[in-house]
Structures
1.
Amino acid sequence: MRNKTGIAIIVASVMTLIFSVYVWPTAYRYDHTTIDGADYSVRTNRFTDDVYVLTQWGWIHPKPENRPPSDLIYLTDEQAAKLLKK
């Protein structure tokens, strides 16, 4: 009886390990979007939030000009008013 319990615990541990490595969590979340009437598959990296679009050439990042620039400068209302007066 004791031997069967030990084997059951080992089997359950191995199955849990296999499930956690190969099934959950996957690095990507898959979705789809419609652009100009065409459906595209989209995948999002769960850890980095990078987005890729599936095209005939494979998974690619969206065009950089469609992304907001990372060096935006946010002005306070006072700074914006001074700039507009000049």
2.
Amino acid sequence: MLQDSNKPESHIVSYKAYVTGVKDGIVEDDLREYFSQFGAVESAEIIVDRDTGRSRGFAFVSFNDYDAVDKIVRKFCVYYFLQLFWFFYHISFYQVLQF
């Protein structure tokens, strides 16, 4: 692990966010509009199946700096962490009631 930190690619900062759960009917302009609240969007690319041309359900949104990506990670990671905490809390509480 320590050896990997000396490689140049280990210090690359990503300006790109991976977006999953992209529904049919969502277009790249919709992604640009939504994610512009986090920073200046350089590009939005919905990944499509090359045979059918239909969305594969995920996309990449690129920004001009890392700050926007950091804001997205903080917002959505906290949100999903709280959802998981709530889920496991209720599962544990339910298990206690079963005994």
